């Protein structure tokens, strides 16, 4: 059965309440023994004497959602996971706020750890999401993923 391509994008920062609610919905899934969570947070990096105040995210949404879908399907084929959720911000996200939320569940912890690392690294390497680092002086530069 082919799974539907999901829209992973959230406008603005990902709220802590959204994250908590996502986690709490899994209490009824009693075959899960482990969850692993990655939260990407915008840093106040200092670059050439200027401090980042926010990142403005843009994406080729249909292409990015397709890539997220491929990563999801690949992860399910490589690891014995029960479920996975990915959410990524679009628009402006201030320093200290969450821009990426990846949530992986599995019967066992080691699998959850390994699957989560795989997902996050694949996202960074292959998904066409772009970040414009906004500085406190209203200048900007395009972020390079590392």
Automatic annotation (TrEMBL):
* Membrane as UniProt keyword: no
Keywords, ordered alphabetically: Molybdenum cofactor biosynthesis
Q: In which pathway does it act?
A: Cofactor biosynthesis; molybdopterin biosynthesis
InterPro entries from the UniProt entry: MoaE_sf, Mopterin_biosynth_MoaE
Q: What is the reaction catalyzed?
A: 2 [molybdopterin-synthase sulfur-carrier protein]-C-terminal-Gly-aminoethanethioate + cyclic pyranopterin phosphate + H2O = molybdopterin + 2 [molybdopterin-synthase sulfur-carrier protein]-C-terminal Gly-Gly + 2 H(+)
EC numbers, comma separated:
2.8.1.12
Signal as a keyword of this entry, yes or no, is no
Indicate the quaternary assembly: Heterotetramer of 2 MoaD subunits and 2 MoaE subunits. Also stable as homodimer. The enzyme changes between these two forms during catalysis.
Protein family (similarity comment): Belongs to the MoaE family.
What the entry lists under PANTHER family is as follows: MOLYBDOPTERIN SYNTHASE RELATED
Q: This chain belongs to which protein, by name? A: Molybdopterin synthase catalytic subunit
